[in-house]
Amino acid sequence: MFRSLSAVIVFLFVTHITLAQSLGRIEGRIVSERNEPLLGISVALEGTTLGTTTDEEGKYVIKAVAPGTYTLVAAGVGYTTLKRSVVVVSGSTLTEYFLLPSSATALSEVVVTTSRSGEFVQPIGSTATKMEAPLKSVPQSVQIISRRAMDQMQVIRLDDAMRNVSGVTMETGFGGRTDIFQIRGFRTSTESIFKNGFRNSVRTFRETANIQQLEVMKGPASVLYGVSDPGGMVNITTKKPTAFTFHDIQLTANSFGQYRPAIDFGGALNEEKTLKYRMNAVFEKGDTYRDFVSTKRFFVAPALTYDFSDRTSLTLEAEYLDHDQASDRGIVAFNKIIADVPANRSIGEPDNVGRHQNRLVQYNLQHRFNDIFSLRHASNFTYSSEERKVVEFAGIPKNDDTNSKVTRRLQDQYNFERNFATQNELYATFKTGAALEHKTVVGLEVASSMFDIWYNRGNYDTLNVFNPKYNSKPKPTKLTFGDDYRDKTQLYGVYMQDFLSIAQRFKLLFGARYDVWDLEKVSKKLNKTTNTFSEVTTTQRNTAFNPRIGFLAEVVGPLSVYGNWSKGFQPEVGRTKDGESFDPVTSHLLEGGLKSGLLNDKINVKAAYFNITRSNVPVTDPTDAAYSIQVGEVRSEGIEADVTGEVLAGLNLIATYSYTDARVTEDTDEKMVGTAFRGVSKHSGSLWATYELQDGLLKGLGIGGGFTSFGDRPVDATDSFRLPGYTRYDGTIYYDNHKYHAAINVKNLTNLKYYDGSQSATAIMPGAPISVQGTIGVRF
């Protein structure tokens, strides 16, 4: 796989050098005075035939531009025409942003009645720097999955999209009922999935209907976001209100009996177009490939933007999600052999119940003081609750010589979570001297959260997984106390960053953040003698200082090299034998690589080496096994390669490869040193490619497909045995003529038997068999 990808990269690079070294490219983004993206703005080079129009996000690209001095013209109905002198250099890309003022004598209204999902490749992101910047200029590995790519893949769950991100493997956390991934060998918890820059901690599958794009930043993100998993973070950018009117109605269904109608509406509510809206809503119901795991989901996400003036705007977003789905931990292994049962086999019961509700409110207030300074004040509130009453795996009987039985228990659980965060950020864009351009942000974040959980348990029965008999006995009515606790945390973070451009060919990124994290934990303890409860309260404080330094240089034409070092942290709850609170677990990233735009930047190529060390990991205290000490260390090291772009007109691809060597490097148990991480493949890769007809009667008809491939992976923390590697193939055929759109996707074309991931030897998730998913929709 790696050799094939290397050959593709070398071929494209040679082709680029020989055929396109003398040409350049211009790209950028156009927004209004209210900082909203402008669709359909004409961007052209005066006196030439070269030009284009902006997409839904206000982005544009003019390709194959001969070196020279030009006048770049941006014009649109109702907006002032702007002209700018630009110099295009051989083999390089010029980035130009426009703020297009409204025309004092606006022409008649033009209503846009169609809304496509933007470009397949999105070259500009904001997650890594908190300000929009071309990814090719950011000295860190960032990958974007665009809305258009997600539509072609018919993404319903996040993992459908994340399969096409290098260094990412699937996880099965929280009983197979939420989004958990491993990035660069490290598990991403709910702490490392964000929505519009805010931590989005929920214990169910996040809805994808209102996602505009996914940005995956590799490595710890503590320098801007505080608490961070070492491998990376996922930031979801949601669809925003628009000044142009559109309506999109679609229906999706699959061969498991699931159907999913959805709407996406947008437009202005007044003639001045200062009040805009967006509405996404989904209803989903049906079965899955797993027995007793059906879904019923309702999601609605309204959004409003009001422009107080040309300089000030407020966006308010809300989400409500009601998701019914029983938890499912998959199947088990007996004596290191995975039970050979069908992919649908369940260890649960037909009447298992799981219900999750999540509410979200965000607002984002932006004000531009002048051409240099702007201010952002934003807040996020989420409230989620979950009820579970399930029969699930409890253990493997010690006296079972048949390697076929598991014991089960009934668990009655309720938990809820509240999160609030506010961010206040001052931005500045200015120059010091003729060659130095600064993009600076200074921010303050305050966040609080509360997580409350209780559960009771009771033994139920013994199940033969090869010949299961469900509902074998009445459910127990008297359960024993399991656990009951409430965690309250407070986070205070202050941060600053400067993204410095030197003569437009060198980039320097440096910043730092200081965090204070406080925990109050209230636990209920049961006195079995008196059958009474008592409360125990413990507190803990962690502080952390996390810097980042990055450098990027354009060395030959569009070829750039970069390097960065950053530090991250995660609070670690617990105490030593001496009663001292644990220090934060820290992570250090060393990364270096190259970025290049081939074939006049139609194709983006990235390659990176990374080394992430996680320190202060708690391990067993050798003097008392009941306690832990923080001397553990783990390391993940490897390389990644990504090729994304438009190879030919209409031919788009995403190709990835990753080599990840993730191991324990220090532990009080010598047997653990050198042990590979659970669930991490040394070799993994993916390909997704589509070709769409560009003209003729069948314009908009496309066909494509690809694969995801993973090597073998340790099943458990001791690497006692492994999940087999696999390569899964998917295919699609679709049609989009702006008004009507339809698609048919076939997943797991060869009906391969494989395993998506594991939490342990007794929680292994089989992969889905072959399935067909179709979508039909209309825009008006």
TrEMBL record:
GO cellular component, one term: cell outer membrane
Alphabetical UniProt keywords: Cell outer membrane, Ion transport, Iron, Iron transport, Membrane, Receptor, Signal, TonB box, Transmembrane, Transmembrane beta strand, Transport
Family matches, as Pfam families: CarbopepD_reg_2 (PF13715), Plug (PF07715), TonB_dep_Rec_b-barrel (PF00593)
N-terminal signal peptide: none
Membrane topology designation: Multi-pass membrane protein
Major subcellular site: membrane
Keyword Iron assigned: yes
TonB-dependent receptor plug domain: residues covered: 135-232
Highest taxon of the lineage: Bacteria
GO molecular function per UniProt: carbohydrate binding; siderophore uptake transmembrane transporter activity; signaling receptor activity
Annotated localization: Cell outer membrane
Span of domain TonB-dependent receptor-like beta-barrel: 306-749
BP GO annotations: siderophore transport
Protein name as it appears in the record: TonB-dependent receptor
Protein family (similarity comment): Belongs to the TonB-dependent receptor family.
Organism: Pontibacter fetidus
UniProt keyword Chaperone, yes or no: no
